[in-house]
């Protein structure tokens, strides 16, 4: 995680907007659990953005946009070298090819 203030005020501390703090019977802090991914800058109060999550989402979208790439295989039935998309049949003899 890499939190950054959306106002770029330079604040280095952030608070979780929704977190459960686990305490023991004496009320002492034991652990915490972020129940909602939302943070605010402690310095100016602006929402904080998790920059480490952004590139991953962009990569995911880019992967979905990728068109299937044709591969060169040698058909085992007619022994012809053909260029097909994964899952396609041999354009020469119609045999099912596993690339
Ligand atoms: Zn700020
Ligand atoms: Zn073939």
Search tags:
two-stranded antiparallel ribbon; 1 helix; SH3 type barrels; 13% helix; 99 residues; elongated; 2 domains; mainly beta; binds zinc ion
Structure description:
The relative contact order is 0.16. The chain is mainly beta and 99 residues long. It is elongated and about 75 Å long. The strands form two sheets. Strands 1-4-3-2 form a four-stranded antiparallel β-sheet, with no helix packed on it. It is 13% helix and 38% strand. The chain has two domains: 65 residues, no CATH class; 32 residues, SH3 type barrels.
Brief synopsis:
By secondary structure, the protein is mainly β. It has one helix spanning 53-65, and strands spanning 3-5, 14-23, 29-41, 47-50, 71-74, 81-84.
The rough form would be described as elongated
Bound molecules: zinc ion
Percent helix, as a range, is 10-25%
Q: N-to-C SSE series?
A: EEEEHEE
What profile does the largest beta sheet have? 4 strands, antiparallel
Strand content: 35-45%
Count of DSSP-assigned helices: 1
The total number of structural domains is 2
Strand order, main sheet: write it out.
1-4-3-2
Structural class: mainly beta
Measured between the Cα atoms of the first and last residue, the distance is: 39 Å
Low-pLDDT ranges: none
Q: What is the mean predicted local confidence, pLDDT?
A: 86
């Amino acid at each position: 995680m890499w939190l950054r203030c959306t106002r770029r005020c330079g604040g280095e501390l952030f608070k979780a907007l929704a977190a459960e703090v686990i305490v023991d019977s004496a009320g002492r802090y034991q652990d915490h659990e972020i129940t909602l991914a939302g943070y605010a800058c402690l310095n100016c109060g602006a929402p904080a953005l998790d920059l480490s999550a952004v590139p991953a989402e962009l990569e995911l979208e880019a992967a979905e946009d990728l068109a299937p790439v044709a591969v060169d295989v040698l058909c085992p039935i007619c022994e012809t070298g053909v260029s097909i998309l994964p899952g396609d049949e041999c354009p020469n003899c119609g045999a099912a090819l596993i690339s």
